[in-house]
Amino acid sequence: MARRVVNPNRRLVDSGSIPIGGSLHQKSRSSPLLSIGLVVLVAFLLIGYSYKGVGGFDGSKEAIRISEAGVSCTSEVLQAIPILKKTYGDTMQKVLHVGPDTCTVVSKLLKEDDTEVWGIEPYELEDTDSSCKSLVRKGFVRLADIKFSLPYRRKSFNLVIVSDALDYLSPKYLNKTLPDLARVSTDGLVIFAGYPGQQRSKISELSKFGRPAKLRSSSWWIRYFVQTGLEENEAASKKFEQALSKISYKPSCQVFHLSS
After folding, report:
1. CA distances, 224 to each of 85, 128, 179, 252 (Å)
2. Quick one: which of 106, 125, 194, 227 could link to 215 by a disulfide (CB 3.0–4.6 Å)?
3. How far is CA 210 from the centre of its chain?
4. With contact defined as beta carbons under 8 Å apart, do 104 and 134 qualify?
5. Are 121 and 141 in contact (CB under 8 A)?
6. pLDDT tens digits, residue range 100-110?
7. Residues 6+ apart with CB under 8 A from 254
8. Is the Cβ–Cβ distance between 179 and 147 less than 8 Å?
9. Concatenated DSSP letters of 147-209
């Protein structure tokens, strides 16, 4: 008998029909798992979206970027600006902010009526945007090492605000820096410092700050103020606390009000 020739195309189709049928069967069995995975993914997206507007000051990306660096009180300064204005009133006409990301604070305060503001960035300016470069170019923000005397005359500003800077100084340099900050102010010095136990800076930030944050207790700071000869501004502290209680807001950083 003559041998029948088999169509090669048909053989390929027949041989491929079994795995195709098996894959369809697997898909039908895995469809519940796929549905569960999609539900979980949607849930994570909804949670992330809900936190977008809560995680920082006014839902801004700057606060998120600052908080990722570790201990951050600069975002607290931004939130506390209305409270500081109620506390110090007309004395907030000429303000100096000292600390990292001072461009954000200066930009915020420049929008306030009847307020002149300058900033000192104590660390290297990295990945700065065009608005920050503009502030540096115009002289509103300058880069300066706060371990040495500030480049300003005595009583150049009404109020000096410092955040995320003193936590990285040893007592040796604090002895020089704190009196110098008080020297250039006429109406007070406001310090935002981290609480002990808060998240410290990432290892990648140590090259920028030079050392890990040394977070001190409020009792340590109060003793240090007395030893340095600086007095707390009790009237300003009381007004600040009263303003906080009215809005039921508790800062995540320690806030100290010192006399000039």
Report:
1. 27, 35, 12, 21
2. 194
3. 18
4. no
5. yes
6. 889 999 999 99
7. 191, 192, 193, 194, 195, 218, 221
8. no
9. TS--SS-TT-EEEEEEESSGGGS-HHHHHHHHHHHHHTEEEEEEEEEPPTTSPPPPHHHHHHH
Q: Which SS3 state, helix, strand or coil, does residue 135 take?
A: helix
CA 226 to the chain's CA centroid = 30
Q: What are the tokens at 120?
A: 């000192």
Q: What is the pTM of this model?
A: 0.70
170-226 pLDDT, tens digit each:
888 999 999 999 999 999 999 999 998 776 444 345 445 566 778 899 999 999 999
Q: Which secondary-structure segment (H or E) carries 142? A: strand 141-143
Nearest to 259 by CA among 195, 164, 183: 183
One-letter identity of residue 201: S
Instruction: Name residue 189's amino acid.
Output: L
Q: How far is the C-alpha of 197 from the C-alpha of 216, rounded, in Å?
A: 9
At position 245, the amino acid (one-letter code) is S
Which run of H or E residues covers position 257? strand 254-258
